[in-house]
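Quick one before lunch.
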Amino acid sequence: MAAKLGILGSGEGSNMAAIDDSCRSGVLAAEVALVLSDVEDSGILKLAKERNISHAYIAPGQYRTKLDDSAESEFIRQLQAAAVDWVVLAGFMRIIKSNSLRAFPERIVNIHPSLLPSFPGLGAAAQAIEFGAKVTGATVHVVDQGIDTGAIIAQEAVRIEEGDTAQRLHERIKATEHRLYPQALNDLISGRIKICGRTTQRQAWKRTPKS
Ligand code: GRF
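Model of the 5-O-phosphono-beta-D-ribofuranosylamine complex:
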């Protein structure tokens, strides 16, 4: 049975669309069961509607960088009601709190537009340019209680060109993300990659015994 994904985002939704495309084309043995956002007029909710994916806006509450407790409970409730197997963060701009981590242990993944542990947090492309780095990239990782600190599942480098703006660089990183995120999810969902504490292990290919 196809794994059910619950995707959380606050922005444009291009990663959600790339993941949904991979599901629909059969490249990823999963289904986007639900899209949730803390931003009522976000692109991700518009895209979910266009694609006939169940979606909802949940008011985040009083804080700027995290959900308040009742909003967090509502996110968890809706994800559990949709029976999602994996919670996929795609541009979700709030810290994930411990109740969510407990509800979906090692089942929440995120994509970040840098090669972690470099440039965590906001404005990762701008941080890389300001630092004078020559290479940055994208990282898919498991979500833990820190900010962009969980076990790394997949990474891909993107070269920083002379004269790059943060926006132009971020667009190129996103193009990489659209390939990397579905691949990494496929590895996780199929069990080809197993999470082992801080790291991950690629499983040996299992042949089906000949009869
Ligand atoms: C991506 O670059 C992702 O790495 C970051 O936020 C951006 C979301 O873009 N966390 P989109 O909403 O998927 O277009």
